[in-house]
Amino acid sequence: MATWHQKGSSSSRKGLGAMIILDTNIFIYLAKGILSSELVANKDIAHASITKIEALGYSRIPANELLLLDALFNESYGLPLTDAIVELAIKLRQLKQMSLGDSIVAATAIENNSTLWTANTDDFGHIEDLHLSNPLLQSNAP
Fold first, then answer.
1. Which of 19, 51, 98, 103 could bridge across to 89 with cysteines, CB 3.0–4.6 Å?
2. Is 130 within 8 Å of 124 (Cβ atoms)?
3. Quick check: 46 pLDDT over 60?
4. Residues 6 or more apart whose Cβ sits within 8 Å of residue 88
5. CA distance 84 to 106
6. Which contacts qualify for 115-123: CB closer than 8 Å, 24 or more apart?
7. pLDDT tens digits along 78-125
8. For residue 97, how far is the Cα from the chain centroid?
9. In what order do the strands lie in the sheet with 44-48?
10. Domains of the chain and CATH, by start
């Protein structure tokens, strides 16, 4: 079983309820208000290490969205890039052309036996062992 680390904490989080891994686009949609924060309230949310880099590494993030993104990442478990995730990401990229980021996010979800929430389900639909959900298709947008 994977070990989960909350931002700024070295404590392990094992045996929690079903973890939901959020793709970069879901963090952005939450920060922009496209998706309601109620969507993730009282849920164990997590992110792959590359998701934080993708979301916060954009040079033109408005200050208010940056604050919201920081708050969301503070409430989300940061899942480390392990050797097992690296090996699986390599295999996924060998099977079908996909971005490095998508391969790491998918491998992280699979290795942690978690559902990946993404608006780009078509980018991941070819991966057999990956559980996907598109929260934009649910009736919980603000």
1. 103
2. yes
3. yes
4. 107, 110, 111
5. 12
6. 115/18, 115/19, 115/20, 115/21, 116/21, 116/23, 117/20, 117/21, 117/22, 117/23, 117/26, 118/23, 118/25, 118/26, 119/23, 119/25, 119/26, 119/29, 120/23, 120/25, 123/98
7. 999 999 999 999 999 999 999 999 999 999 999 999 999 999 999 999
8. 20
9. 5-6, 77-79, 44-48, 19-22, 115-117, 131-133
10. 17-132 (3.40.50.1010)
Nearest to 110 by CA among 128, 129, 124, 92: 129
Record the tokens describing residue 114, joined without a space.
């978690």
CA distance 58 to 56: 6
* In the block, residue with structure tokens 């109620």: 38
Q: Quick one: DSSP state of residue 117?
A: E
29: its two tokens: 């949609």
* CA–CA dist 113, 72 (Å, integer): 22
Residue type, 105: V
Write the CA distances from 134 to 2, 33, 84, integer angstroms. Answer: 24, 16, 26
